[in-house]
Give the backbone structure.
Amino acid sequence: MEYKLSILAHNIRYLRKAAGLNQEQLAAQLKIKRSNIASYEAKNVEPRLRSILEMAKLFDIKLDSFLRERLDDSVSFARYSDSNEVDHNSTAIDLRGKINSPSFIDKTVKYKKVLQGFKAFYSYRKSRISEMSLSQQKTTLDIDNFIELIDYSLSHHENMIEAAKDVG
């Protein structure tokens, strides 16, 4: 049976090499150990969400492409830095009318307010980290990663609204 890397493991290795980085250099940029990079590429360990987000930014690739498409020299992928542009091959085009709808915009505004409230509450809780158990301190790292993912999702919603306004 032939051993196959997961899409993510393959893409980490492919993009690292395409960027001209060795494992040590990539690890230094991500502020993690080289052995973590080796484990990610060998499919022994899945990276933490924060590392996935940081790699997507570093390699200038959208999360969807990074996580779902097996990249190679023949594949053209969506750039992270192009997130303000409408991708005419994506489902965003099919949703254009719905994106302009007050319902979608209202939900995005409410989503942003809830996130801001959660961040304020979480900031207070995090300020008391010295009073937390080791387990609770580790959980705060997961919450940081979750907040970053929600921020990314919210900015994507806002970019879709702006793109729909420009097209409409």
In short: Helices lie at 7-18, 23-30, 34-41, 49-58, 63-68, 96-99, 102-127, 134-167. The mean pLDDT is 78. Residues 96-167 form one domain.
